Each structure stands twice: as structure tokens, then as C-alpha cells.
């Protein structure tokens, strides 16, 4: 398949033919996806892990996928909706590229993973390993379509990330005292993220989309944990949200540095923090009703991560109308919430996505 199709128009005006005009019409830019369970389309189905890090069983996926694919929601995720808006097919998980075309992009995300190899080590595909898988795909692409086209596909593609969520949980769940200060830990995370972005850039990637971190302390999981440690008013866990804010302050600075260092490097940031806080505070604005409790799980706020009954805790309840809920399970938004967020990511204004929304970012030439 040629990357550039020539659209040649032959026009007869009166009795004279105008010269043939050829317009180069690029194919739609590909989408490569990296990160954690916010984006995982089922990669964790293929690795040696536990049900804690998987979602390939009911009621996951029930609103859209039959059978469940491994997505941590009741249906589609942000990359699925982006593909729809960008006129791309569903982007396949890395482990399915043997049977599905991958020139439109590949999804490498792994539920539970982080920027650091130490985060859930042995159970997930960390970000550095996701980069290695991407490098494999870049080589396969050269063999499939040739060097020139492969280069065009990779440079024109959009690379989207949802990562560091799970890194930020590590200090909160550490059994013994955590060995790093917040600043040292953030530097490690940013160092790893930077090296992965540089690795993709080296293969030809130029357009990077980053989701910043949501208010982690307001997930049903963290509200339930807060109750366990004696905060009785059902409020968000401040420490968790503060760690997210710390990452969110460092992220644009790091991307600005890369923009200065790497010719042609372009980025945009989706303010996931802002839209999630807004949907928790004003659910009706997003067509939702219930924003503190999950649809699927058990315990206070259905914040115990038991949805599907395959993890450590087997008991779970499922809501009657998932479309009322912001959160599907104890840590992940519902399909409807993801759809609303993708609309903002695709068409949003600079207070939500900047310096580019995704619609213009896809069209941006490199």
C-alpha cells in the first residue's frame, strides 16, 4: 500500500486541456498507544500474570465487546474512540499483530504498568519493554512496506501515552518505609519517560500526546482506602492527589525541554486532571449521575477491586445502569466517560488540551 496516493485530475475547459494537476493525498496518520490500564486493549491476556492485572472476563467489556477483550472498562477506551474519529480501524494489541494489520498503529499498553520497571515487576509490561516492542514493530514495518514508506508512517503517526498512575501508587502502598523522597522518585519516573520518548523519536516518531494524571486520591479505590485508615467523611486521599499534581507540574517542563533538544519534536497534553475533577464535581455536565462510587465492585464506594469476582476478593456487586456512572470499577472510568473525554481530546479548547487538540494534531505535517 503506497503511503501517498496521487490524485490526478484531468480537466477539459472549452477545447483546451489544462495541465494534469497532481495533489499528494496522505493516508490517515497511524496511532501508536503506550501506557497502563487506561489504554490496555488486552495485552495482559498474553503475559504470565494474575487476574488482578487482567480484565478479560465479564462484566468487563459487556457494553460493547463480546466476549470481553481485556479492557478495564465496560466497553471502549480512549484509543478506541480516537481511532473512530481518525477513520482508523481499532488499533490492535501488540500480541495480536501476527493476525491483524499494524500499518495503522499498534497498542502496547499494559494494565498495572508504570514508567519504572520496578512498578508491578514480573506482572506487567513496563514502559521500557513497550518501547522495545515498538522497535520490533518499526523493523517489521520496514520489511512489510519498505524503508521510505515505513519512515513516512512513523513520522506522521501520533504517539499517545497514559502512564505513571501506577508508579504513584507505589509510595502509598509500600509496606516498609519508602526509600526515596518525592523529588527523587519523580526524577526517576521522568528520567524513564524521557528515555522512552527519545527512543520513539529515534525510530522516527515526532508527534506525542500525553495524558496528565487524574486526581488519584478521588478514585473509589482510594476513597475506600481512606476510610480504612480512619478518614471517615468519604473524602479523597490528599497524599495520592498531591503526588499526581507533582507529576503534572513536571510533565510540561520535561516536554518543553525535549522540544528544544529534538528537531521536529511536537507534543500536546490532555488535562485529564481537570476533566476528571470536573466530572466528579459536576457529573450531569457529562451526562452522568454518580461520580464517587463505582458501578462494579464491593465495599464502601464499591472501591474494593473485586469486579468480576476473579481477583483476591470474590464478592462484587454490579449496578443496574452503567450509563449513570463515572467509574466502572474501583479505578477505571466507564465507556461513556471515556467517550466524553475523547470528544474533549479531539475537539477541545486549550484549557483542556494544548497546544493542539487531537483533530489538528493528526493533520499536523512533520
Automatic annotation (TrEMBL):
GO MF term (any one): lipase activity
Keywords of this entry: Signal
Top-rank taxon, per record: Eukaryota
Protein family per UniProt: Belongs to the 'GDSL' lipolytic enzyme family.
Lineage: Eukaryota, Viridiplantae, Streptophyta, Embryophyta, Tracheophyta
RNA-binding keyword on record: no
Signal peptide: 1-22
The name this protein goes by in its record: Zinc finger protein
Organism from which the protein derives: Solanum verrucosum
